[in-house]
Amino acid sequence: MTQSGKRIEAIDFLKVLLTVGIVFRHAELVGMEGRSEAFDLFSRGMMLITEVCVPLFFVISGFLFFRNAPDKVGVDFFVGKWKKRVFSLLIPYLIANCVAFACYWAANRFAPDMMSGFFGNDWRNPIFVFWTGPINMSLWFIRDLIIACIVAPLVWLLVRYTRIWGVLALGVIWFAVAGSPWYNLWFTIGAWAAVCQGDAVTRLLSKIRCHVPADAAAWCFFIYLYHYIPAITFKKLFIVRLDPTTAWSLTGTYFSVALITLLLVSGVYYIFKKLLPKPLGVLVGGKL
């Protein structure tokens, strides 16, 4: 059984780092390989570094889901968690996809050139929108996390009764099928940490002093939900206007896309926080 309730600043600090990493990952100049060997090397390094962001987000999510689980988990525990996830995950996920759909519709209507090379007309396909996509492409993580929460009782049974051996077996399956969602290795690792090592992990994390704002989790979630469309838009505009070819211009474009995206979406977040805190609370799933 783990210690519950108290916010762990180390986790919020890690979320901030991972969120920034995700934005930099989506600022990657895909299709620009070969223009500069130096930039290709740098780009591969950044992709390797940011590759860990989503798996670690799953680990954190699994840990937080089971952090306050009692020794004997009943149906009420999962029902309560599912109800909370409707507001903290499902509703923000649906809203973010609706916003993306509106943006894609407007771009297709008024600036169709902006759509070329990214989505074609796939965003109109209901199967794409609700499963293959989602329409906000970066939100596949939220979609998979929702599914992981739904199958959380099976995850609990696995880690409760097989301990680390069940996690290792799941890892073998995961790697054997080249990263299949099987479901979900990283979420299950976080669940194992909470169920089997919860108090030790919580004590360790609580000793790490990180001074992050109280709304860090809300900021991270907002950035994750709404950074992707600005990132791909700035990326395309910069590539078309600047046509970078040298290592310095490509690197500058890459950092510019990431930083401007972070500044823009952060600015929108703080405007909402100042003027429309209640709607913002809904958008970030009650994390304010």
Backbone structural class:
mainly alpha
Number of strands: 0
Q: Oligomeric form of this entry?
A: single chain
> How many helical stretches?
12
N-to-C series of helices and strands: HHHHHHHHHHHH
How does this structure look, described?
The chain has 288 residues and is an all-alpha fold. Helix content is 73%, strand content 0%.
Index terms:
single chain, 288 residues, mainly alpha, 73% helix, 0% strand
What is this structure's SSE topology?
Layout: H1 9-26, H2 37-50, H3 53-66, H4 75-110, H5 126-132, H6 140-150, H7 152-176, H8 185-207, H9 216-226, H10 228-242, H11 247-275, H12 277-283
Helix pairs in contact: 1-2, 1-3, 1-9, 1-11, 2-11, 3-8, 4-6, 7-8, 9-11, 10-11, 11-12
